[in-house]
Automatic annotation (TrEMBL):
A biological-process GO annotation: DNA strand elongation involved in DNA replication
DNA polymerase III beta sliding clamp C-terminal domain span: 253-376
Subunit and interaction comment: Forms a ring-shaped head-to-tail homodimer around DNA.
Keywords of the record: Cytoplasm, DNA replication, DNA-binding, DNA-directed DNA polymerase, Nucleotidyltransferase, Transferase
Residue intervals of the DNA polymerase III beta sliding clamp central domain: 137-250
Entry GO CC: cytoplasm; DNA polymerase III complex
Name of the protein in question: Beta sliding clamp
Function: Confers DNA tethering and processivity to DNA polymerases and other proteins. Acts as a clamp, forming a ring around DNA (a reaction catalyzed by the clamp-loading complex) which diffuses in an ATP-independent manner freely and bidirectionally along dsDNA. Initially characterized for its ability to contact the catalytic subunit of DNA polymerase III (Pol III), a complex, multichain enzyme responsible for most of the replicative synthesis in bacteria; Pol III exhibits 3'-5' exonuclease proofreading activity.
GO molecular-function terms, A-Z: 3'-5' exonuclease activity; DNA binding; DNA-directed DNA polymerase activity
Length: 379
């Protein structure tokens, strides 16, 4: 095998594929990057058994400066190969596989020789039927991931909660995540009608990596499913992830239908106030911020204290405030994550009681995006 390519173009694709390669794996060959050179171009593959990423660098793209002198395949230790490529001196690089699996990497006056492995020993990627597929714009899908993945659990004791629950039916695409202390739910209507239906749980870690790969060019993302795998197609890149097995809890019953007290804020203003209050709450053992609402006086106060440091109290200026008096405590980190997901929106916070979960929704769309937070008992 022998090919020459523009180094910057190669590094860009190498970085994407390397997201799926782990140095800690029970299958030694998966610490490597698989490279296949053919008339179509270079196919790069990385996998860690949970996620796999495959991308094609096309031979017919003049910007990539790719010329394939000899087709073939090799697996190279990703860590060494990646570091070498990033430090080569010239704009172009040449990779040549010689006797056995000896691989030479040259650029200008620099020449590295490293040992490769037989590409035939690399595990095959799953085959996924394209019958059930969904297409979303990259920007919409990236936003959807950002708004829901914040609420996935980090506790492996309940593996099912470490994923985001995706359901598609009647052209409505629903994403829900909860760690049992908070919940995030987003629903969108597909722009083009689809007969596809599915109910799957995708690991939050997979979605975080996928989100980092979705560019700002608003190109479409296509989702396809098999029994235990999901495939995302982003242009010439394929992103595979395993699905989590089991039944996701019924989260719809957690969302309160009634409210005894409601308040509206500009999300950035409330976020800034919670951030100020959390400066001291983080110094106390229980990390709690208290909110006091007095609708009759149109008054909202945020309070936090640390026995070792001191306390902070701030009067807030709500846009609207209705209902009964209320005093409620919550984890400020959960609140900050929720508020950041709303961007510059005006939000409505709805409370039922001091010990019941409360919801946050954007005022311009109160049914398709909900964040829910469970308060903290402080007595």
């Amino acid at each position: 095998m022998k090919f020459t390519i523009n180094r910057a173009a190669f590094v860009k694709e190498l970085n994407n594929v390397s997201r799926a390669i782990s140095s800690k794996t029970t299958i030694p060959i998966l610490t490597g990057l698989k490279i296949v050179a053919s008339d179509a171009g270079l196919l790069l593959t990385g996998s860690n058994a949970d996620i796999s990423i495959e991308t094609l660098i096309r031979a017919d793209d003049p910007d990539l400066g790719l010329s394939i002198d000899e087709p073939g395949a090799i697996v190279l230790t990703a860590r060494f190969f990646s570091e070498i490529v990033k430090r080569l001196p010239e704009k172009e690089m040449t990779v040549t596989v010689k006797d056995g699996f000896q691989t030479e990497i040259t650029s200008g006056a620099a020449a590295f020789n490293i040992n490769g492995q037989d590409a035939n020993n690399y595990p095959h990627l799953p085959e996924i039927d394209a019958a059930d597929s969904v297409v979303l714009s990259g920007a919409v899908f990236k936003e959807l991931i950002g708004q829901t993945v914040i609420a996935v659990s980090n506790q492996e004791s309940r593996p099912i909660l470490t994923g985001v629950h995706f359901v598609l039916s009647n052209n409505q695409f629903l994403a829900v995540a909860t760690d049992s202390h908070r919940l995030s739910q987003r629903q969108i209507e597909l722009p083009t009608p689809s007969d596809a239906t599915f109910d799957v749980i995708i690991p939050g870690k997979s979605l975080t990596e996928l989100s980092r790969m979705i560019g700002d060019d608003d190109a479409d993302v296509k989702m396809q499913f098999s029994e235990n795998q999901v495939l995302f197609l982003l242009g010439d890149t394929s992103f595979y992830s395993r699905l989590l097995e089991g039944n996701y809890p019924d989260t719809s019953r957690l969302i309160p239908k009634e409210a005894s007290t409601t308040v509206e804020f500009e999300a950035p203003e409330l976020l800034a106030a919670v951030e100020r209050a959390s400066l001291l709450s983080h110094e106390s053992r229980n990390n709690v911020v208290k909110l006091t609402l007095t609708p009759a006086e149109n008054q909202v106060t945020i309070f936090s204290n640390s026995p070792d440091v001191g306390n902070v109290e701030e009067d807030l200026a709500p846009k609207e405030l209705d209902g009964e008096d209320l005093e409620i405590s919550f984890n400020p980190d959960y609140m900050k994550d929720a508020l950041r997901s709303f961007g510059q929106s005006t939000i409505r916070v709805a409370f039922t009681s001091a010990l019941r979960p409360f919801t946050l929704v954007p005022t311009e769309d109160t049914s398709n995006f909900i964040q829910l937070i469970t308060p903290v008992r402080t007595f």
